[in-house]
Amino acid sequence: MPRSPNSPRPKAGSVTLATVAQRAGVSPQTVSNALNSPELLRPETLERVRRTIDELGYRPHRAAQTLRTRSSKLIGYGIRPTAPGTSAPVMDRFLHALSQTADEAGYRILLFASPPGSAGLDGYEELLDLHSVDGFVLSGTERGDQRQAWLEKRGVPFVGFGRMWSGRQIGDWVDVDGASGTDAAVEHLVALGHRRIAFLGWPRGSGVGDDRAMGWQRAMQRHGLPVRGKRAQSIDDIASAQAAVGPLLDAGVTAVIAASDMLALGCYHALRERRAVPGKDVAVVGFDDSPTAALLSPGLSTVAQPLEAVGRECVRLLLARMSELGAPPERVLLEPSLVVRNSTSASDD
Amino acid sequence: MPRSPNSPRPKAGSVTLATVAQRAGVSPQTVSNALNSPELLRPETLERVRRTIDELGYRPHRAAQTLRTRSSKLIGYGIRPTAPGTSAPVMDRFLHALSQTADEAGYRILLFASPPGSAGLDGYEELLDLHSVDGFVLSGTERGDQRQAWLEKRGVPFVGFGRMWSGRQIGDWVDVDGASGTDAAVEHLVALGHRRIAFLGWPRGSGVGDDRAMGWQRAMQRHGLPVRGKRAQSIDDIASAQAAVGPLLDAGVTAVIAASDMLALGCYHALRERRAVPGKDVAVVGFDDSPTAALLSPGLSTVAQPLEAVGRECVRLLLARMSELGAPPERVLLEPSLVVRNSTSASDD
DNA sequence: CAACGGTTTTGGAACGCTCCAATGAACTCG
DNA sequence: CGAGTTCATTGGAGCGTTCCAAAACCGTTG
Fold first, then answer.
1. Which of A169, A326, B295, B340 has the fewest Cβ atoms surrounding its Cβ within 10 A?
2. What average pLDDT does this structure show over B65-79?
3. Residue A304 CB contacts under 8 Å (≥ 6 apart), including other chains
4. How far B116 CA sits from the closest chain A CA (Å)?
């Protein structure tokens, strides 16, 4: 990078390998080698070519490289219209990490918005052929997701954010250990002296939700605490969560662990309705650490997913897969962390 | 698309123009024409070629097209690490709309995460040369932003989400009329009978913030209401907003319009601190319609930006600019809309 | 000094597409 | 019925890069 920022650069875009070659008095191939296999060149030639490249501000033309090497250095990422269990802001952080890490490895993220209605497969096909992305990152994987199988059949490298919840495990994935998160929440509450700890979850059948429920259950059992009649379910919506958790509160639980911040918020409402104060009368724990969680009063204790790490891992696994298609699949389960706020440690805010 | 989903497709990726040409008994050029200038072909030839394309599942190779036509059909989008005044979830919706609209026009969005620290310009250069994006969408434009001038100098088509707040206006942009939003908020409050309406803004100097303040001010003046001593400022943080708005509340204002939902939330806290209820004792209006706004109790009335429309407009302007570089710049100012919730119409939730 | 391994450099072709100019076919008209 | 005109199709070149195999160079060695 030793070029003064304002040195007049021969109009970018028109500098090709040939230009550099001519100027440096070598063949185009040698210039190519200088970039791709520098060890082939005699040190002094390399130095000279490099200087020329720098002087002219040469940049290889990606399309030409892609055409020749059949590798686009592009990673496709399908943004979905906010799947359940994955709040938008959450995905935003993930996307950032993804892009950043990919960048560092010389890859770029090509966005791909699946139209709201479609199952989405047809679109992937097009994306694949058209732009010949080198690999895919899937997110918002759900039970019965067909994308993994589809991609595998075509031999396209991919990594899922989210494990496969049913059927045969296909390909690599990175996921967050939801059970471990709710387990930790139980531990936290038990340490505070709670014993009647309820779980407010989504209707059974969603992989993510069942996993989170399981963590609660196993931790409760480990402590010899009852789970019977301590579980309610609701769709991810405040009003219905509020209604669903009511009976549990009335039955006298002292703490509620919710499968999402949204559900936890329903719980806040149910408590207020009963003139009870979250964190003081009843402890509440959410899941996701959505921006809202910090803004509530009292602040909502919640389980935070390590999204940056997930993004990094996705890229890492994808790169590995691309470099060695036949390797055994790798699956990474990351630990979430409990963020403690006032909803589980009563003070006055 | 009249192909049964499971018909054996000759392994994709290896089908080229030449393959199709041979199969259809025409020259490669004719196949190319069938796709790009169908009006040149005799209807029956066109039909035959099209059928063959379909049978073979042919897709043009983007890199080859790019190499030849010098147009990548790629739009660069620099995601920034959440600039002030633009909350992450908000940008998420925008990104969706952007991608969707671009898609429909045959373009794709290439993500580009500027590393947190950097001013970011160097990165753009690389992105531009390397992947030869056809155009750029800038977001999170700020006072003194250098990107517009930089891009203009290089003759790269671009559109900003966010007007230029200082200096010479450069290029096209799309923005939301913040002043109009706060103006509407005043109207709404006046209609409810409020007269002592305060504004809680950011420190002066940010274009976005000053614009929002201005809308409040002009509407107040139009109604002959005093603005003196009715304004406070704070950085975008709950605690400091809470502190900043205190004196206004103590001075007896009946309504507060905040420059962001975050500030509005600080206002909620300040009210609670005084044992007052938002929406009942004092009306509060936020800005952004962040997901949190709907989740609060009482629900926060707030000014919502038409992000989907902004995304669409960005693509539209960018396409126009790309097709005619010399055209006079177009600037679009979109109207936000006031979302009324219980913070301005006291009921019990 | 011719022959030889090894290193360094090169020429030519190819990737898949579209541009351009030219050819062939069909049709009009003097 | 040949020349002119239009319409439909084609051949060849070239976009910028990398692959491949062959060539040039070099210092050793028999």
1. A326
2. 90
3. A288, A289, A336, A337, A338, A339
4. 10
